[in-house]
Design a protein that fits this description.
The protein is an alpha+beta fold and 236 residues long. The protein is built from seven helices and eleven strands. Helices cover 34% and strands 21% of the residues.
């Protein structure tokens, strides 16, 4: 097991930090707005669907605990992972103007989601519409960032970007920014980053060999954050 007691000396810095889902100063998070409402709290198991593409959309789902992936399925059965989500993220926002969900949302470990009846809350909960608009805007900016990363970065830089971004998100939630537990498989990570499984494995091994990270199965410890950022900057 990796040492989970490491203390961050500096806040984690994500290459995608500008498009993160932290709320604006003075504006409460969705979870804060909703925590006292009698919403349905739904527990999910690992690999369980929260919803499937084509299923009637009744709610949005606020993640309270756990780690989830969203994905699209082509007509011939090919899966494309569109994102990984954790506490504070909303599932289903891509279908907010549609009668049916446009993608699948699947739990990668045990978790909990809150079912949000959007139509009932839009006019009856002060601040809800503002927060929902902010979430939608952040989703768009985040998608732009990942499109740019996948389209312009090397395989090594894509993996590094993902690790640094995950580190920053975990720190925002109060967890260690050094010790990361990858809830997704390496195949899923490769799918999201448009890389082959073998490429992801090779990159992680190379980063470990150069002393930038330590890898123990799905646990990754960031050993040299400055070195990871140097890779993104093209500094050898």
């Amino acid at each position: 097991m990796l040492d989970s007691t490491l203390i961050c000396e500096k806040p984690a810095l994500s290459p995608l930090a500008w498009s993160g889902n932290s709320h604006q100063a003075g504006c409460p998070s969705l979870e804060t707005l909703l925590q006292d409402l009698p919403l349905q709290r739904r527990r999910v198991r690992a690999r369980q669907h929260v919803f499937r593409s084509g299923q009637p959309r009744q709610f949005l789902y606020l993640i309270h605990a756990g780690f989830f992936k969203t994905s699209l399925l082509s007509e011939d059965g090919r899966e494309k992972i569109t994102g990984f989500r954790m506490r504070g993220d909303l599932l289903g926002v891509d279908a907010i103007d549609l009668p049916r969900h446009a993608c699948d949302a699947i739990a990668l470990d045990v978790g909990e989601v809150w079912e949000i009846p959007v139509a009932e809350l839009q006019d009856g909960l002060p601040g809800f519409q503002e927060r929902l608009t902010a979430v939608l805007a952040n989703e768009i900016r985040r998608d732009w960032s990942w499109m740019l990363a996948v389209g312009t970065l090397t395989a090594e830089q894509r993996v590094v970007t993902f690790l640094l971004d995950l580190s920053a998100q975990l720190e925002r939630l109060g967890f260690s920014a050094h010790c990361l537990l990858l809830r997704m498989s390496r195949a899923d990570l490769g799918n999201f980053l448009s890389l082959q499984l073998e490429t992801v494995t090779r990159v992680l091994s190379r980063l470990q060999a150069t002393g930038l990270i330590d890898v123990a199965r799905r646990e990754i410890r960031i050993a040299d954050r400055t070195g990871l950022h140097a890779l993104l900057s093209g500094v050898n």
